[in-house]
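On clarity, I found the account of how folds are encoded harder to follow than it need be. Since the whole study asks how a given chain folds, the encoding of that fold should be made plain. For illustration, here is how one protein appears when written out as sequence plus structure tokens:

:::
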Amino acid sequence: MTRVPSADRTEFGEYLRRRRAGMIPPEPGAGARASRRRVPGLRRQELADLAGISVEYYTRLEQGRAPRSSREILAALARAFELSRAERDHLFRLAGEPPPEPESPEAAVRPGLLRMLHGLAGTMPVTVHDGRLDLLALNTAAAELLQPLAATGPYGRNIAYQVFTATALPDLLGDEGAELLVRVAAAEFRGALSRYPGDRYLQALRAELAATSTSFRDHWERGEVETRRSAVKHIRHPAQGWLNFDIEMLHDPERDHWVMLYTPRDPA
């Protein structure tokens, strides 16, 4: 097993000490006499008890003398310190471990992002979807432009489901654009399953598409995985006819939300 370099273990220990010093000590129980604390925060024993580890081992961690911590120990420390996701991820990186992958994306879109999305309705279509490819929000311009992809049912919000069940895809994108979109949708969906391998919703959706869509089965067999950040799309607007858009994807990694901006271009 690869050990964390000594300099990293030292920084890791310093981070633990700073976090422990910033925690609020417990109130003494009824009738108990509070002992005098020489330093702020929790004692090592108190923190070790919260994490479910021995005080001897925790002391070695703070002193930079312990071997590489397991992911279980790191998760226990993060819970004991009541770390935010960003703080927990920092703790894992200091210990030489990649941060834990989220079990599922956040369900709610940030309020400020929603305000931006609706504020741009007169300028450009904007959508927000999560790492499972579920559409979470769209402004009126996007709803008008993408209306042919709208779907219902338990998977109606999912972009992959919309793409593989839409009957008017060539009318919206043209034959070449439609073929490219189904290819990308299958590749993106495979990527979503790799991020959330235990997600029952995604597993059920895959079974549904495999049972009902020949196109999905054909593209799934290619085994492609892809996440596009930029693209140019030729889309038929219901009132304005064919329009060209620069597509840019912005990612919020904490919530695993993707913002898709459709910036209008001059007609080709």
